[in-house]
Amino acid sequence: MTQTPTIDRDRLTKIIIDLVSIPSVSDDELEIMEFVAGLCEGAGIEYTVTAKDPQRPNVIASIGNGNGPTIAMNGHLDTVPVSDEHRWVTPPLKGVASPDGRMIFGRGSADMKGSVGVMLYTLLALKDAGLNGTLQAHIVSDEERGAEFGTRHVLEEIEAGKLPRPDYVLIGESSQLKVRNAERGIFGFQVRFLGRASHTASARVTGVNAIALAAKGILAIEGDIDKEHPAVGRPVISVNMIEAGVANNVVPGECTITVDRRTIPGETDETVLAEVRAALDAVKTDDPNFDYEITPSREEGYTPANITDESSPVVGALQEAIREVTGEEPEYFATWAGATDGRLYRFAGIDTVGYGPSGQNAHGANEAVFVDDLITQAQVYQVLARKLLA
Ligand SMILES: [Zn+2]
């Protein structure tokens, strides 16, 4: 059993307050990345800057001797803007610690400068620890708006052989100190219900009201889905848009709904479509006028659910590190398994797991991160790195 590392609370807090105090809304990440590069420079940590757009750089920092696996911690420094300054009790673009030191307020504190601070702290703390292998931080821009200039660019450079390919990736997005080894997939599709337009006066004779068909169809597919995966919980289906009707006196001939379906590992777009068709075809047996067609949504597309299996060394090492540091059995982050840049590493074939702190009001007013969680995170990251790079 490794000894639980001691974390210098003041030093960690200072790094995070500095990060939160540099505004870095997506598209404006240059200054904060220069700060990160300067911090590495000053501490004698090797780093490279890689950028698709020089105004939106990413810093790849590394420690270790290279004689072993490479672990990359990934965190983004871009934030969403502040749109409701009047609701904030502290200046939103400044890192402000609460008087008891247990919280740090400011835009980006929870999502996810607190966690990036832990990554930088971890590099500083383990710089001379004699790690066998490489511990990296991929500090990226552009997570909030699709990652083209951030993690997607970093992965392109890895594929092109310009950056070392990590064996394992650790994502620091908020996870309430739970293990986030999988993410739900996203599949958008539309169902067009096909009625027959007519004059209202003859609605019962020549008309087939497509809105009425849609009402039956929606009730058939919208609701709880009786499946569950331990890592991400249940799949979700939600009918989120509806469009129909041309005039007050015309029975609508068509009605289109847009559906957002979140998948769990084991499901695909094909299995989802088969389920939806089965549910709608069951309506058809009772109503000869019921007719529909399904088209996958071009906008949403399909992102498969993705998982790094429990048997992966990085998941095992994380679980062990959590046990050692907290004395508790690790849990999966299944309650709100939204997407992170972790999916991009998984799609590139790299074992990836998430572990990050709790925060409050990410993207909202009075966003804050809990310092005790950051300290636990820092301890777990150190223990994990020492296990995989022993
Ligand atoms: Zn985030």
Main sheet characteristics: 6 strands, mixed
Percent helix:
25-40%
CATH superfamily of the largest domain: Zn peptidases
The value of Rg in angstroms is 25 Å
- What amount of the residues lies in strands? 15-25%
CATH class of the largest domain: Alpha Beta
Strand order of the largest sheet: 1-2-6-3-7-17
For the record, the count of structural domains works out to 2
Structural class, by secondary structure, is alpha+beta
Q: Which segments are poorly predicted (pLDDT under 50) over 5 or more consecutive residues? A: none
What average pLDDT do the residues reach? 96
Bound molecules: zinc ion
Instruction: Give the second-level CATH assignment, the architecture of the largest domain.
Output: 3-Layer(aba) Sandwich
Keywords:
single chain; 390 residues; alpha+beta; Aminopeptidase; Alpha-Beta Plaits; elongated; binds zinc ion
Describe this entry's structure for a reader.
This protein has helices at residues 9-20, 30-43, 109-126, 151-159, 210-221, 269-286, 313-326, 342-347, 371-388, and strands at 46-50, 58-64, 70-76, 96-97, 103-105, 134-140, 168-171, 182-183, 185-194, 198-199, 236-244, 250-251, 254-263, 292-296, 302-303, 306-307, 351-354, 359-360, 368-370. The chain is of the alpha+beta class and 390 residues long. It has two domains: 9-181 and 308-388, Aminopeptidase (3-Layer(aba) Sandwich); 184-303, Alpha-Beta Plaits, CATH 3.30.70.360. A six-stranded mixed β-sheet has the order 1-2-6-3-7-17. Strands 9, 11, 13, 14 and 15 form a five-stranded antiparallel β-sheet that branches. Helix 1 crosses helix 3, helix 3 (109-126) packs across helix 9 and helix 7 packs across helix 9 (371-388). The protein is elongated, with a radius of gyration of 25 Å. The mean pLDDT is 96. Bound molecules: zinc ion. Zinc ion is lined by residues 76, 111-112, 143, 173.
